[in-house]
Amino acid sequence: MTIRVLPPHIARLIAAGEVVSRPLDVVRELIENALDAGASRLEIEIESGGLGLVRVRDNGAGIAADGAALAAVRHATSKLEPDVDAVERVTTLGFRGEALWAAAQAGELHLVSRPAAQVGASEVQAHGEEVTVRRTSAPAGTTVTVRRLFAQLPARLRTQAPAAAEAREITVLVGRYVLHHPGLHWRLTVDEEARLTHAPSDHRGAVASVYGPLNANRVLRVQADGVCGVISGPELTRARRDRMHFSVNGRPIVAPPELEKAVLEGYAELLPAGVAPLTVLDLQIAPEDHNPNVHPAKQVVALADLAGVAGRVRHAVQTALATHPLAQARTAPALSLPTPPHTPRERANFPALRLSGVFQGLYLLAEGEGDLWVVDAHAAHERALYEHFARELGAAPPLELPEPELLHLTPEQTARLAERGAELRGWGLTIEDFGAGLARLRTLPAALAALPVPRLHQQIIDSALGDHPDPRRDVLARLACAPALKAGMLTLERGEAVLAALNACEQPWSCPHGRPTTLRMSERELAHAFGRRGTRDVARGRDETERVGR
């Protein structure tokens, strides 16, 4: 198609302002340009987190010589017809004509492009409003290079993330495009090191490239009207929804909560509460029924019939699960409670509680300081286990595995290992990069090595190399949750032990995930609830303390 500058009234409808605020934005825009050009092979290179260099090379349709001079002009595009109706029927990933212009404003843009049928290639160099075009020779396709990003914008440069963090985010971004475009060749190189490679395959193969073959072996194919992709079996879940991926007409999106909820509803009772599956779903929506022009980075789209799309997703997930024999993984909890520390600890005025009873096999009813206390036994047990693990973590030398365990790491986990390796070794977890997406687990903290937790090693690795800013805390919190008392397991004897363990905690008021462990009710609150206005309606317990304090 011919590149043309959109008329002002069309440009006003789609203008997004600045679309390049970090290297990640440049990578996203250039990938989308390559996909729009019909490329079957994409090679992405970055240096210094993308601030030094971003290069995307593709074998797509290329830019004809007569349109090269307009490539870096704002609102010059071949992807949108210059009429108002076209804005309502966007069929490409890019359409605003701002990407190359914005990259040239923020850095030094160099573009070389040749359509397969054209003799000779066009070379464009642009920085700010200065654009030069010349003829050159090059293979068919397009190579776009952006150097020295924000070098002339010192205030913007100072606010950029560290190079390693930006490289990790770019790796995640490229991984998402791989998941939703599995039929293409992909290669990501970070500082001259191959970080992610993928050969053409299906969605299962893309999951293997991004998340490892172990995860790929646990996914089920989804194929329904307007919905295709893969979902994991109920034995492969995570505590977060960070691996629930959706695309609309090939565009990776930030999914509306309704779509995530539809997937979870599709699993119904096969999925425990509070966990999410690995999901890669491609949605096909009529161009007039979705609007990608509601977000500067086009990551959020508006759907005309969101409820209908969610219904199709729910049905597709149910159908995929119905065709496979499924067994829900059960956790065998450890009922032992940690021994309180010998040294008295500051307990932030936590009272000694006297157990009165058990409600619904999960809640403890207790008395203390003249009030009624309701204790969530799971949250309390979780807090006690967490603090016990924290005390014991460095008390013994790390346990060296007799045979190092070989692990498959995602590109994102590999990037985090390079950042956190020394920190993890400091508390007994030794993971060695083995190359090609592999790593060896050599040592474990002795306090964690024998826990009766399913897939213990995998859970430790997922937390230690996850996106939580404090991997030590995330590891301990996850491992404290698995063996903690569950509903129906509570007895009076265990309740007494839970109260004793909670009383010995340094921070007894919440579990390590932030949920409260206790609910306190004064007798006066109960009297008011029952409409009492007699001798029982007097300040006692907490109410008396608050009255005296005033």
From TrEMBL:
Protein origin, superkingdom: Bacteria
Keyword DNA-binding attributed: no
Residue segments, region Disordered: 531-550
HAMAP family in UniProt: DNA_mis_repair (MF_00149)
Bias type Basic and acidic residues, positions: 534-550
The DNA mismatch repair protein S5 domain, residue ranges: 207-322
Sample GO molecular function, one term: endonuclease activity
Membrane spanning residue stretches: none
Record's protein name: DNA mismatch repair protein MutL
Family recorded in the similarity comment: Belongs to the DNA mismatch repair MutL/HexB family.
Key words of the record: DNA damage, DNA repair, Endonuclease, Hydrolase, Nuclease
Xref: PROSITE patterns: DNA_MISMATCH_REPAIR_1
Residues spanning the signal sequence: none
InterPro entries: DNA_mismatch_repair_CS, DNA_mismatch_repair_MutL, DNA_mismatch_S5_2-like, HATPase_C_sf, HATPase_dom, MutL/Mlh/PMS, MutL/Mlh/Pms-like, MutL_C
Keyword Thylakoid part of the UniProt annotation: no
